[in-house]
Amino acid sequence: MRKLVLSFALLLPLICDPLFVPERPVVSPAKLGELIVLTRNTPTTRYIDADGQYRGLEHDLVELFAKDLGVKVHYVDRQPLYRILTSLQHHEAHLAAAGIAVTSSSLDEFQFAPSYQMTQSVLAYNTDDGPPRSPADLVGERIEVVKGSASIEDLRVLRKRFPKLRWHEVAESDSEGLLARLSEGKSDVVVTESHVLDVVRKFHPNIARAFSIGDPKPLAWVFPKGSDSSLIQRAEEFFLRITRDGTLAQLLERYYGHSERLDRLDIANFLERRLTVLPRYKRWFKEAQDVSGIDWRLLAALGFQESHWDPLATSPTGVRGVMMLTEETADRMKVQDRLEPRSNILAGARYLAEIRDMLPDRIQEPDRTWLALAAYNQGFGHMEDGRILAQRKKMNPDLWSNVKRTLPLLSVYEHYSTVKHGFCRGGEAVILTENIRAYYDILLRFEAPHVPSMRLLSTNGARVSGAVR
Fold it and tell me: Are 400 and 367 in contact (CB under 8 A)?
């Protein structure tokens, strides 16, 4: 009896400890009625967009998987990164969907679903300083890396060649904060993952990639050891299906297809003009949202790509103004003076909305908007020709990821001679659309959404389209 009391006394602190979690698998999603998922709030995993809705590659994948299982999702946001795998070892969730890279050490401790994306450890540096040329240049530098990230394993391998190599492991959710510190000159080098740098560099034009270290690594969902084998099997079947039917490719295109469009000078110029030029026209872009139903930041991104927000801009072909309207489009939109910025912006917004509404109802966002932007540049007929070529190649013509591959073919005789509207520089439309997507991402980050005028909405019935991601 005394031994029993002593045993209970020894266990009592653990039982009362709020962090104590029994080492047993979570009840299956089918029995529980929900899928418990460990994740993190980052631009490359799961975040809240300008409409207050959750978005992100991991979020979208999890939602599709839960739909397959016929259950709801319960997200457990774990910050910082290193706590995610520890929580998974304690069986706090069915899986972790948090942009986790598979490493040789983690293979011994966890189970993984099939990979959905590849990444690689890279060195980011501040372009105000000279770039490191080789790993030897890193010795003595102030190096920061996220605690718990796969990049640490690569650094440890590198230290075998350079024993004096040192770094500081920072307990953060991801390397976005570290890259911001690098931009401010508070560190010399940040070791991060390539897909993270591709997304974050849009917000910091003085950050660039030096070189890669280590081999490419797959990103995958992580399951604790001893997980229900049937759940892992369902995940394997899920990833096989979305790979075969193109869903995975479509999601990767949505979040990463435009991430490398702009160089650092493009980004620096855009950020500078956002502060010095955009304030003059912001009220008219917001008014344009009221009358067209299109997010003012997307319209501003379009205006920048067209003219750099120059109301007097005129091209050699005669298109003019902030939104670079042709004379024909201006007449259609009843614009008397294309160089008057308010009229030009409102007309460009109405014209884009008109094009978007002409597309078949079955085309969903964000593809609907990306296709409309391409048509804004090259004309609706040429955009439709690009969709026809996609269909001939057995691709879905309703997806921008497919049409952006066929539009450049419209400058090649063997292709444009077979479609109704003939030759066009379809590659220009692709460049325009991808640049606008990148500028729009930046504005979503730095500019607040506009709440449309309810009076206008009740008057003209405009439907406001939020952030198309």
Answer: yes
Place of tokens 């997806």: 399
Check residue 139 and give left, alpha or beta (phi > 0: left; psi -120 to 50: alpha).
Answer: beta
**What integer pLDDT is reported at residue 48 of this predicted model?**
86
**pTM of structure:** 0.81
306 is catalytic: yes
The catalytically annotated residue of 172, 306, 384, 434 is 306
Kindly state the average pLDDT of the residues 250-270.
87
Residue 309 tokens, joined: 């927000």
Return the H-helix or E-strand segment holding 73: strand 72-77
pLDDT 10s digits, 326-368: 999 999 999 999 999 999 999 999 999 999 999 999 999 999 9
Residues in the chain: 469
Domains and CATH numbers, the chain: 16-116+221-256 (3.40.190.10), 118-218 (3.40.190.10), 264-460 (1.10.530.10)
| Residues 353, 355, 357, 360, CA torsion sign | negative
Tell me the C-alpha distance between 57 and 93, whole Å: 19
DSSP collapsed to 3 states, 313-354: CECCCCCECCCCECHHHHHHCCCCCCCCHHHHHHHHHHHHHH
Give the residue carrying structure tokens 């904060």: 177
